[in-house]
Design goal:
- Helices cover 33% and strands 16% of the residues.
- The protein is built from nine helices and nine strands.
- The strands form three sheets. Strands 2-1-6-5-7 form a five-stranded parallel beta sheet, sandwiched between helices. Strands 3-4 form a two-stranded antiparallel ribbon. Strands 8-9 form a two-stranded antiparallel sheet.
- It starts with a strand and ends with a helix.
- It binds S-adenosylmethionine.
């Protein structure tokens, strides 16, 4: 897979590309990351990439010409073009899985007040990484690239994905490592037992408990197994937090 990033600040990606799992994925040829400086596509001698907004107001707006010329330079028939924007649809694990199937994604990073709205017509989708405003799209593009690259074949062990948050519609269960007793805080006994079936049940139950407590919205339209419903009933019977809109699941 190839990821092309159109940005005014390519130097921001040095640490991202050259560190840990992403660096290894690049080295092993699982992904190619190309950072293209939008400023290289300006036509005026001062290399202007932005101008004041029509209609007045504060801030500078990135101009169509350098952005769209940069896009035309890198775009191929198989490219999927994403524009980073707080007003876009919110990125999630399902989007990451979808992008991980693509041969080429191009991510356009805005800066300043954002981009001329006519650029929106030339992209496949506007994507946000959450309901807050960053100074630029660079960090957002790294978030998306990271989430996608770790899903590519062979980048990390396939099994590591299976129990991760969101993969089965639940948040993950708690992890522990040595020592088994840290200043009196003990690791749950079952994890030391070596009994695989009991460990599986414990982890599933804790996943359900975490999701119920922290992200009950994830459970609203999820299909449950009989075993999961049994655990949910236990939570309700023991007086644990149980949102009223989810009671239908255990009826
Ligand atoms: N004026 C814009 C608004 O109100 O929606 C915010 C512009 S922001 C300061 C500059 C750029 O950062 C945006 O064009 C976008 O590329 C990027 N950006 C900021 N927050 C983002 C977010 N939550 N998700 C994705 N990109 C974001």
């Amino acid at each position: 897979m190839k990821i092309t990033i159109l940005t005014l600040f390519p130097e921001m990606y040095d640490g991202f590309i050259n560190t840990s799992i992403i660096a290894r994925a690049v080295k092993q040829g699982k992904v190619e990351i190309e950072c293209v400086n939008i400023r290289d596509f300006t036509l005026d001698k001062h290399n202007h990439v932005d101008d004041t907004p029509f209609g007045g107001g504060r801030g500078m707006v990135m101009m169509c010409q350098p952005v769209l010329d940069a896009l035309a330079h890198v775009r191929k028939a198989n490219s999927h073009v994403i524009l980073m924007a707080p007003s876009g649809k919110t990125f999630n694990q399902a989007c990451a899985r979808n992008y991980a199937q693509k041969e080429h994604i191009i991510i356009i990073c805005g800066h300043y007040e954002g981009l001329d709205a006519r650029i929106y017509d030339e992209v496949d989708e506007l994507v946000s990484i959450g309901d807050y405003v960053l100074t630029g799209g660079e960090l957002a593009s790294m978030v998306i690239s990271d989430a996608v690259i770790r899903l590519l074949d062979g980048v990390i062990e396939e099994e590591s994905h299976l129990d991760e948050s969101f993969e089965n519609g639940l948040l993950e269960y708690p992890h522990y490592t040595k020592p088994a007793d840290y200043k009196g805080k003990k690791v749950p006994e079952v994890l030391l037992s070596g009994h695989h079936e009991n460990i599986r049940k414990f982890r599933l139950k804790e996943s359900l408990r975490n999701t119920l407590k922290i992200r009950p919205d994830l459970l609203e339209n999820r299909e449950f197994t009989k075993e999961e419903i049994k655990f949910l009933r236990e939570f309700a019977e023991n007086g644990e937090f149980f949102p009223s809109n989810l009671v239908k699941i255990i009826k």
